Amino acid sequence: MDGTQILTLGLGLEAPWILKNQYLDTAVSPHRLDLYVEAERGSLYPCPECGKACQAHDFADKTWRHLNFFQHHCYLHARVPRTKCPDHGVKRIEVPWARPGSDFTLLFEQAAMSLVKEMPVLAVSRQLEISDKRLWRIVHHYVGRMLGELDLSKVVTVGVDETASRRGHRYVTVFLDMQRKREPVIFAVPGCGKDAIQAFSAFLAAHGGDPNNVVEVVCDMSPAFLSGVTEHLPKAEVTVDWFHIVQTFTKRLDEVRKKERREQGHPKSLRWALLKNLDNKNLTPKQLSALQELVADQSATADAWVIKEKLRWIQKAPTPRAARWRITNYLKVMQAAVSEKSLLKPMGKALATLERHADAVVRRWLSGLTNARLEGMNGLFQAARSRARGYRNEANFIAMIYLIGSPVGRLFDQAKST
Ligand SMILES: [Zn+2]
């Protein structure tokens, strides 16, 4: 086997294509290897429309970047014909080593995608020595193509969460199939609320699913989400995340603390202590003494903190019935306490939120759907954010969420091996 045969094999060339010429240029840095591919003179080529063997009408010179040959950049050159089909006229043929419109060979793109699944896009672009902009174009092509093959016909329970594409930026709403153990993300869209739910409903229908089959949605309590579910997933019961209940109370607690501090003053480390969980063992001694001081004193912040902490009593309810009973009694006791101190007004709002969504909160005992999955999403979002670093926009962030968190990454591996 000579060098030409080895390279032909490496390129996966088939008739009528043959490697005609190769040239290693060591005068440039990095060195480049140019491979010239041709078809035998007088070859027939399949019409891209009907596959009928046709004669070439004319040729155009094209170049593709190929995988490095050791440390040398490698380029593939070919004269690509247009066929003249009696039925379809003059058409440019597709070559077997690259997809239409791409300046890279399929092998190059596959290598790029394998790397992008494992490391930040910017790092991959440096390693492959192409611009990150071009690499992102490859990523978007393959993610889009694999998304097209996503089968959502079995989706019946859905989790919804939102995250900022980066700090202070627009939101991205992510939908999970709560029944999928691995790679649960099935849809991600810029924006949030009702529009996001509507977009999901349309996406589901376009991928073999049926919005009417969705019987359960786990989400937060934002009115926009809830009205979106009512309208676009009409058969779904809503389960509210426990995580979001606690979040609501924590936010209101912080309002009380700020207001009271403005009026009376508090130890400085208090804010951080308050925002941490009581179970958290990572409190500094200073925070711990601040907490002790807090519990001992009669401040509104201390009361608010107790109100928030007692949510655990509801959370520990063994049955839906018990949960309902505990919520009713918790609300009764806490509402009475709140009405006695005007500084506690924000906590009254948190209690009203809980009261309003009590049915949806109790559903977590019935549906068996917990938000552990949703909370686990934070890790995914962080990973996606760091992979998309350097050329950040929502579309890139979303492409990374799909690649890491959805079945798209695996579909790509399967497609590659066939
Ligand atoms: Zn034809």
UniProtKB/TrEMBL annotation:
InterPro entries: Transpos_ISL3, Transposase_DDE, Transposase_HTH, Transposase_Znf. Signal peptide: none annotated. Residues 158-401 form the Transposase IS204/IS1001/IS1096/IS1165 DDE domain. Pfam families: DDE_Tnp_ISL3, HTH_Tnp_ISL3, Zn_ribbon_ISL3. Residues 94-143 form the Transposase IS204/IS1001/IS1096/IS1165 helix-turn-helix domain. Residues 47-88 form the Transposase IS204/IS1001/IS1096/IS1165 zinc-finger domain. This is Transposase IS204/IS1001/IS1096/IS1165 DDE domain-containing protein. It comes from marine sediment metagenome. The lineage of its organism: unclassified sequences, metagenomes, ecological metagenomes.
